[in-house]
Amino acid sequence: MRTSDTYKTITKPSKETLFKEKHSKFFSYAFPIKNEEDVKIALESLRKQHSSAGHFCYAYQIGTQTDKIKYRANDDGEPNNSAGMPIYGQIQSYAVTNILIVVVRYFGGVKLGVGGLISAYRTGAQMALDGSNIKTKTINVLYLISFEYKNMNKVMRIIKEKNLNIVDQKLELDCKITISVRQKEASKVETSFNSIYEVSVKELED
């Protein structure tokens, strides 16, 4: 079970880094991602940029909850586990998530061997991470608060007292406010709203 309600990620793509080994060139990139569609878009962009490269090896991890993490490692034609897993190993080593790392290889005519490839792809991933701005973020829970307009003051008082972040609101006769709460504060906040008569609280899927 995760005891912390924070995680580490990057907020913008890294700068391109270059690593050379026995005439082969390894260009490395890190991208912030939210889903597999983001992975596809980043890979398509790199394939256009490096149209004559031989291998686009990558690994990614998505998710902040231990039981919901998705990851993939792809060797893209290199020997099994010589590229994708060494890249993924660096993602784990730096304890980052919602991230894609791609290492693009131009073959230089000299075979590196499996050990050489593992070392080169690990180094490429490490350089991409070292060139990234890694930030710590909080894991948040979204709640939908539904109530009649007459209960507005009671609801807003809790929001103000607990300094809650309003994500969306629709204030009419029937009001709906979506709030974002740090995971470790979520149950207390939910209890506070549940204690108000005629106010409904529902946790939303992020």
Automatic annotation (TrEMBL):
Origin superkingdom: Bacteria
Lineage of the species this protein comes from: Bacteria, Pseudomonadati, Bacteroidota, Flavobacteriia, Flavobacteriales
GO biological process per UniProt: regulation of translational initiation
Gene3D superfamilies referenced in this protein's UniProt entry, alphabetically: Impact, N-terminal domain
GO CC annotation terms, alphabetical: cytoplasm
Domain Impact N-terminal: 22-129
Organism expressing this protein natively: Bizionia saleffrena
Similarity annotation: Belongs to the IMPACT family.
Designated name of the protein: YigZ family protein
